[in-house]
Amino acid sequence: MQVNNIGWSEIEEKIARKAFEKAYEREINALIEEVRERGSKLAELDQVWHLHDFLSARRHDIDGKYDYRYSVLIFVFARLLQEGWLDLDELKGLEPDKLTKIIALARM
Amino acid sequence: MQVNNIGWSEIEEKIARKAFEKAYEREINALIEEVRERGSKLAELDQVWHLHDFLSARRHDIDGKYDYRYSVLIFVFARLLQEGWLDLDELKGLEPDKLTKIIALARM
User: Fold this and answer.
1) Nearest residue in chain A measured CA to CA from B57
2) Phi, psi (rounded to 5 degrees) for B25
């Protein structure tokens, strides 16, 4: 499956940017909510270090995942779909070929 | 100033252990309180990553600081005094020579 070097029209770029930002916003809000929740329940040192470990992992994950380069966007969207941060409807308007690839990758 | 290879009597060991644990308990409780406070105020991603940086630094600091070996205890107590986690009164009963060294180091 050829997923690099795919051209994106101006309309597709707008759709992609919006979907990307929406997914990011959702994931960040969920993270803030979870940290707030965990923070409010802290009672022991172990929980503090677990929170630290959790944040280390989430930071690494989020830093790597939200890569807005058109050469990797098909993979990024597939992962965001798979993880539930993005809905297929939000990619409506992309070329059918791209959607097919995203859906196929998300199912892997 | 010779601070290694100092002998500790059984009574001194009891005083030292109690003071060490008290300081640790205070610092840990203050940390838990601060993380809880920061957690409850989280509103933006930047604050989440600042919390992560803060926890990384505190973990490194606390892991290194609370070293209960008699060969380094004079230094540990000096630092705990300096940082306010320990009160001089709580070391009462240690040999005057040790107290003098701890106080001198704490003032450095």
Assistant:
1) A52
2) -60, -45
List own/partner pairs for A48-52 with CB under 8 A and 24 or more apart: A48/B31, A48/B32, A48/B35, A48/B55, A49/B55, A49/B59, A51/B35, A51/B55, A52/B52, A52/B55, A52/B56, A52/B59
What mean pLDDT is predicted for residues A51-65?
A: 97
Residues of B whose CB is below 8 A from A55 = 48-49, 51-52, 55
- Give residue-wise pLDDT tens across range B28-80: 999 999 999 999 999 999 999 999 999 999 999 999 999 999 999 999 999 99
Contact yes or no for A39 and B44 at CB 8 A? no
- What predicted TM-score, i.e. pTM, was given to this entire model? 0.86
**Which ranges constitute the DSSP H helices of chain A?**
10-40, 45-65, 73-82, 96-107
Q: Which residues of B touch A66 (CB under 8 A)?
A: none
| Cα–Cα distance measured from residue B105 to residue B108, given in angstroms and rounded to the nearest whole number | 5
pLDDT band at B6 (very low <50, low <70, confident <90, very high): confident
- Average pLDDT on A16-25 reads 97
Looking at the complex, report in whole angstroms how far the Cα of residue B18 sits from the nearest Cα belonging to chain A: 19
B60 CA to chain A: closest CA distance, Å?
A: 11
Q: Which residue has the tokens 């990619």?
A: A91
Q: Note whether B56 contacts A51, CB cutoff 8 Å.
A: no
> How many whole angstroms separate alpha carbon B12 and alpha carbon B95?
8
